[in-house]
Design brief:
By secondary structure, the protein is α+β, with helices and mostly antiparallel strands. It is built from ten helices and 20 strands. The strands form four sheets. A six-stranded antiparallel beta barrel has the order 6-15-19-17-16-20. It has a five-stranded antiparallel β-sheet with strand order 2-1-5-4-3. A four-stranded antiparallel β-sheet has the order 7-14-12-9, with no helix packed on it. 22% of the residues are buried. Mean pLDDT is 82; it is low at 1-5.
Length: 446
C-alpha cells in the first residue's frame, strides 16, 4: 500500500517536468528548464547542457543555477571537449566515473570531474543529435534513477528537436539550401545579384545656408561698441546694424585738423615772405604739398568717422550667432561680423567625408533629411563641387558641395540634417565591397 502514493508522487513529478518543457516559449527557456527543473527527478549537484554550435562543435548553452554562460570560460571549453568524447560512446544514457574518462580530459578537468555523472544524449525522432545533458553529483546513481534519466532523455530530446525543427540553425539552412540542384540555382542567383546594377550613393552632413549673402565687414580697425539687431532679425536697407567705438578715429581726426591748420599757417607765412626772401619762395612748393596731404588725411578720417555706423546695404535677415560675442571685441579692417541674406534664397551645403567620397558631378540628385523633420525629405541638385578636401569644424577632411533646393517653401537658414547624394549605377558586388576594399588597401599600404 505504501508504494501507491510513491508511484503517484513520481508520476506527478514526471508530468510536471514534461509540462514545464511544453510551456517553454523559446529555446533559451527550454535550456534553462532542462538543467533546473529536472532536479525534482534526479537529485543532482550540477547539470550542464551542451548543443551543437554553428561550426558543428559542442558549446555549453546552460548550467544549473546560472543565468548567463561564458563560452570562453575554461570549464566551458573543457566541457565542449568532453561532449565530443561522449558522442563517440555507445548508449543513450551513460554512467561515467572519473577513471573512465580519457587521460587528457581527466587531467585538464581534475577540479570539475565529479565522483559520478550521467551523460544523456538528446536525440529527436529522426535520430539526429540535439545535444548532451550532463548530471553530476557525489553519490552513485541508482538503477531506478538511471531508468528515470532514460525517460527524461527521450522527453528532453523530443522537446529540443521540436524547437530545432521550428527554427533550424543557420548551418542547417545553408546545407539545405545548397543541397542537390539547389546549389546551381543559388550559384546562378549569386552571380546575377552581384552583377545587378544599383545606384551608388553616399551619406553626408548637410546644412541649409544662404544663397548669395552680403557680408557685413568692419570698415576700419576698431572695437565693436554695440550690435543693434538680433540674430535672424529682418532689417531694411539703411538700418544701423553695428556701431564701432569712434574714440580713436575721432581723436585722430582732431589731430589731423590741427596739423592741417599748422600746415596752412606755415604756407601762408611763407607766401607772405616769398616776395622779399628767395629761400621762402623755394619752400612754397613743399609747404603746399604738406598742406594738401593734411587736407586729404582730414577728409579720409571724416569719411571713416561717418562709416563707424555700419548700415544694411539691402533688405534681408541678419545672420550671426550672438550679439554678446561681439560686444567689446576688437576687429580688423575687412573682418566679417555678420551676413545679410534673403530668407527665401537658400541652398544646401554638403560635407562629404574624404573617406566616403565617390565620383560626384554637377547635376547629381540629393535627398535631404532635416533633423527637425526626419520623416520627410527635401529634393535638391548638386550645383558646385570642390576639387580638394577642406578641414571641417570637427577637424575632419571633407569635400564641400553646394546643392540647389527644389522645395516650394524653403527651410529656415541654419537647419542641419543628413543628405544622401546619388551617383551613377554600379554592380551590386562593387557597392557591397567598395568600403572593405578601400579599408584593406589602406591597411596593406597599397
Amino acid at each position: 500500500m505504501s508504494g501507491a502514493p510513491a508511484r503517484s508522487e513520481l508520476s506527478q513529478e514526471l508530468l510536471g517536468f514534461q509540462r514545464a518543457l511544453q510551456c517553454c516559449r523559446s529555446q533559451r527557456e527550454l535550456h534553462f528548464a532542462l538543467v533546473n527543473d529536472a532536479f525534482a527527478l534526479l537529485q543532482y549537484d550540477q547539470a550542464v547542457l551542451a548543443t551543437a554550435s554553428f561550426t558543428g562543435s559542442a558549446q555549453v548553452t546552460a548550467v544549473s543555477g546560472l543565468a548567463e554562460i561564458d563560452v570562453n570560460a575554461p570549464f566551458a571549453q573543457w566541457f565542449a571537449q568532453l561532449a565530443l568524447w561522449v558522442a563517440t560512446q555507445p548508449g543513450a544514457v551513460i554512467a561515467i566515473a572519473p577513471d573512465q574518462l580519457p587521460s587528457d580530459l581527466a587531467v585538464r578537468g581534475a577540479e570539475w570531474v565529479p565522483a559520478h555523472a550521467l551523460a544523456c544524449k538528446l536525440t529527436g525522432p529522426d535520430g539526429a543529435p540535439a545535444g548532451l545533458l550532463w548530471f553530476a553529483r557525489n553519490a552513485r546513481f541508482e538503477p531506478a534513477e538511471i531508468a528515470m534519466a532514460e525517460w527524461l532523455t527521450e522527453t528532453a530530446g523530443f522537446a529540443a528537436w521540436g524547437w530545432r525543427a521550428r527554427a533550424p540553425a543557420v548551418a542547417t539552412r545553408i546545407k539545405q539550401a545548397f543541397a542537390g540542384r539547389r546549389a546551381w540555382y543559388w550559384a546562378i542567383a549569386c552571380v546575377v545579384s552581384i552583377a545587378f546594377p544599383v545606384r551608388l550613393s553616399v551619406l553626408a552632413p548637410a546644412e541649409v545656408t544662404p544663397l548669395n549673402p552680403t557680408p557685413i565687414t568692419a570698415p576700419a580697425d576698431g572695437v565693436v561698441q554695440r550690435v543693434w539687431v538680433e540674430p535672424n532679425q529682418r532689417v531694411k536697407s539703411g538700418d544701423v546694424l553695428v556701431t564701432l567705438d569712434d574714440t580713436v578715429t575721432r581723436n585722430r581726426l582732431l589731430v589731423a585738423k590741427k596739423s592741417l591748420e599748422i600746415a596752412l599757417a606755415e604756407l601762408q607765412r611763407a607766401t607772405g615772405k616769398a616776395f622779399a626772401d628767395d629761400q621762402s619762395k623755394s619752400e612754397l612748393q613743399i609747404l603746399d604739398a604738406r598742406a594738401k596731404e593734411k587736407a586729404a588725411e582730414v577728409t579720409y578720417l571724416g569719411e571713416l568717422l561717418q562709416r563707424i555706423r555700419i548700415a544694411a546695404p539691402r533688405e534681408g535677415i541678419a545672420i550671426f550667432a550672438d550679439p554678446l560675442d561681439w560686444l567689446g571685441k576688437p576687429v580688423q579692417t575687412g573682418e566679417r561680423i555678420m551676413l545679410l541674406s534673403d530668407p527665401a534664397a537658400v541652398e544646401l551645403t554638403l560635407y562629404v567625408p574624404a573617406d566616403d567620397a565617390i565620383q560626384l558631378e554637377t547635376g547629381a540628385a540629393v535627398r535631404m533629411f532635416l533633423n527637425v523633420s526626419p520623416l520627410s525629405s527635401l529634393e535638391a541638385t548638386v550645383t558646385q563641387t570642390s576639387y580638394e578636401a577642406v578641414q571641417t569644424a570637427e577637424s575632419t577632411l571633407a569635400y564641400v558641395l553646394k546643392a540647389k533646393l527644389d522645395a516650394a517653401t524653403p527651410p529656415r537658414i541654419g537647419l542641419k540634417g543628413t543628405a544622401k547624394i546619388y551617383a551613377g549605377y554600379v554592380p551590386l558586388g562593387y557597392y557591397i565591397m567598395r568600403k572593405p576594399i578601400a579599408w584593406l588597401r589602406r591597411a596593406a599600404g597599397l
